[in-house]
Structures are given as structure tokens and as C-alpha cells.
């Protein structure tokens, strides 16, 4: 991934540190503080996992963004003797993230399309739509319950029915329907 052969890079911490981007290795930079501090914390056992993103120098001199995941191997005396893990090239992802930062506002064509599409009706009608949905689902639940009860009439005892409640429910349904079509006709159901 970095273009080096195994013979070109000795397996030492300083070799890794030497290939860090100056922003990641310079003791003054914010990223460097994070990269080196996180590594030190993991090395000292303060962190249970090691995973970081930083830049490493390619053999050609360019820098690649790398996702580094690793584990520290310890001997029987719990002394670290080797770091094992993997590097994943995330340069394209980082470039895409950087490009997105350059465009905090939508492109003009998208902005114009958004402005043409009016969403005002949603904010005005949303409470009424939600109430209609709530009322409709309650009504469906009642109808299903009534159907279940009527399908078991032969298995259960006959119960008295309040006809006034049935009429009130019917009037309530009609009132709701008429109110939703209030622009067509005005009725007062009492």
C-alpha cells in the first residue's frame, strides 16, 4: 500500500513515526497530539483497542490517509514486544469528506429546485393529517373488534347494545368526513 518493500522499512517505532505526515508527527499540531497520545495510551494499557486515522508517506513522497487497527503483543512478563495489525487506505474517503466541506450550501440548481417545491402545506396540514390518521386507525380498530365480536355471536351470550352510542359514533364519523371536506359544504351536527 505504501510502496515499500519489507527490506526498505525496518520494523521499529521510529520508522513508523518518521513516515507520519508532519501534521501528525510534529509535536505542535493538534492531530499529532491525538495520534501520538492515543498510541502511547494504548501502549501503556490505558486503552483496550487501537484504531486511528492519520497520514503516512508513500514511497513516491505523497501521503495516504490510513485507518490503522492494531493489537500489542506482549511476552509472558507482559512486556510489549510487537505491534500487529492492518492499515487500510482511506484516502478517497477523506478526499470526499474534504470536498463535502467545500460545499456547505446546495448547488444553485438544487437550491432553486428546493425553493420551487413548496412544503408550506405540510406544516399547515400536518396536525390535521395526523389527527385524521389517528381517528381512522381508532375507527378501524373498533370495526375489527366489532367484526370479531359479531363472528362469535353463536358462541357467546347475546349482549345488550346501546343504539345511541352507535348513532353517536356514526355521527362522529360523518362530522369528521364533512369537516375534512369543509370547503364543499358547511354542516353542524348536534
UniProtKB/TrEMBL annotation:
One of its GO terms (molecular function) is protein histidine kinase activity. The lineage of its organism: Bacteria, Bacillati, Cyanobacteriota, Cyanophyceae, Nostocales. It catalyses: ATP + protein L-histidine = ADP + protein N-phospho-L-histidine. Its EC number is 2.7.13.3. The keyword RNA-binding does not apply. It comes from Dolichospermum compactum NIES-806. Residues 50-102 form the PAC domain. This is histidine kinase. Keywords: Kinase, Phosphoprotein, Transferase. The keyword Phosphoprotein applies. It comes from the Bacteria.
